[in-house]
TrEMBL record, chain A:
Keyword Aminoacyl-tRNA synthetase annotated: no
Gene3D superfamilies (alphabetical): Fumarate reductase/succinate dehydrogenase, transmembrane subunit (1.20.1300.10)
Subcellular location: Membrane
Protein name: Succinate dehydrogenase
Pfam family, one: Sdh_cyt
Source domain of life: Archaea
A GO molecular-function descriptor: metal ion binding
One Gene Ontology cellular component annotation held by this UniProt entry: membrane
InterPro entries: SQR/QFR_C/D (IPR034804), SuccDH_FuR_B_TM-su (IPR000701)
Sorted UniProt keywords: Heme, Iron, Membrane, Metal-binding, Transmembrane, Transmembrane helix
Amino acid sequence: MDKDRKEGIRGMANPGRYGIERVAYWLMRITGLGLLFYFIGHIYETSSLLDGKAAWNSMLELTQTTEGHIFLTLVIGMCVFHTGNGIRLMIAQSGFGLGKPRRPDYPYTPSSLNMKNKLCIYVTIGLAALAMMYGLGVMYDV
Amino acid sequence: MTKGGLLPKGFERPTVLASPSDSGVQEKYEEVKSSSKTIVLRISKFNPEKDQRTTFLEFTVPYQRWTTVLDAILEVKNNYDHSIGVRYSCRQATCGSCGMIINGKPKLACFTKISELDSDVVTVEPMNNFPVIRDLAVGFERMISTHKRIKPYIIREDSEISSGTKEFLQTPEDVEKYIQFASCIKCGLCNSACPTMATDSTFIGPQGLAQAYRYIADNRDQGKDERLKIIDERHGIWGCHFAGSCSQVCPKGVDPAMGIQMLRGYLLGYRK
């Protein structure tokens, strides 16, 4: 780090210093990794079907514990956030919803980091939280 | 300016403190001096030829409402430690020399007032994602070479400097399309804030990509295909994840994130 000053993975720490867009970038990475691990775990879980009904049932029981419920709630949140933010990014990265280039006037406010984009991020986080609450409600029969 | 000159309605002429020798002015100077606050300035010290690790030197520096971080660093350099390595020139956010990490964020030292940092401790470090030359000075070789790689000039067969030709006229609307990106002062703050630059050493970076857009959006230019070919790769335009930090830290309002996404529009066929 000293000579080349490469931030590396450390650059992902403290995302709030660059605003909500960097937080969304950070969450996108974390949820992406989380979903990848879930996907691998899911393949392992469903592969237990090959070992018969008893093996499958004992695997399902794992998800009926408190830890299992917390894990599945996190999966729901990760899934909703990653999907919502992914759609926002696909639209923005195609050059839409960024505003128009204009002569910069002080104080400079970047139009690509506009309210539309910020609102989308906040709504996606909100939707993920709502989905997690709904999931908890279903799992605990509330 | 003449003393009795006319001023627009509603404006008042400010009191000018001409020189400390004027009667009463010395007192005013003393008053201002005594009312100044102090901060602890932590300066990163690292010489790649000698040191193994970065160390921080701490100095207590007085400041006023208008004191910039660069002023404070130069105060220390002039009075306490002449060996501090810092690059600066214009002191007015035009040359792009004094970019550094100030309290964790890339900023121009000459464009950042201590009073606006709202902190009793100001930590200055060299910019991230650039090799350190010494202390706060970093090497720009890689950024300049990627800047050159995207051909930062108008490409076309005819020239406005050939005899018998005229200048290429543009409407104000044509200029609006790229002028924002022409404000780049190559300070490197965007590359320093970029999370992709932090992990990918071969990424072109927001500075170079925004400059590619600047020339592609210029209707005098005919080198669009040439430039798109250069940036259309994994470590080029597709390395950007639209974290927006480059635009967040740009001191000239360039908005590289916008330029990069617009460029993608060209590559995806949404933009002609």
